[in-house]
């Protein structure tokens, strides 16, 4: 079960997928000329939070369980992104 959300601001490109998919858990932050995602501090529907994280094109969103272990992105998802970026 997801109990915490972290967003890596440097990786976020501000596409908006997360805050549109799950506004209870994500919000947009205007940083100068850029929009970045931030966690709201609250949690939304588990499926919607997972969908938002999986929809992030840069894997900037990390979903953590109660023990602080990463639920998503998985090592497989990170490897797939790395492979896609290396072509």
Structural features, described:
This protein has one domain (4-85): 2-Layer Sandwich (Alpha-Beta Plaits), CATH 3.30.70.20. The protein is 29% helix and 26% strand. It contains 3 helices and 5 strands; from the N terminus they run βαββαββα. The longest helix has 11 residues, at 75-85. It is globular and about 35 Å long.
Strand content: 25-35%
SSE order in H/E notation? EHEEHEEH
The CATH topology is Alpha-Beta Plaits
Task: Give the integer mean of the pLDDT values.
Answer: 92
Helix content: 25-40%
How many domain units? Answer: 1
Largest beta sheet, briefly?
3 strands, antiparallel
Per CATH, the class reads Alpha Beta
Net shape: globular
Write down how many β-strands occur, each being a DSSP E stretch of 2 or more residues.
Answer: 5
In terms of topology, how is this protein built?
Blueprint: E1 4-7, H1 17-21, E2 26-31, E3 34-39, H2 46-54, E4 61-64, E5 70-72, H3 75-85
Antiparallel strand pairs: 1-4, 2-3, 4-5
Key words describing this protein structure:
87 residues; alpha+beta; Alpha-Beta Plaits; 3-stranded antiparallel sheet; two-stranded antiparallel sheet; 3 helices; 5 strands; globular
Concise structural overview:
With 87 residues, the protein is of the alpha+beta class. The chain is 29% helix and 26% strand. It is globular.
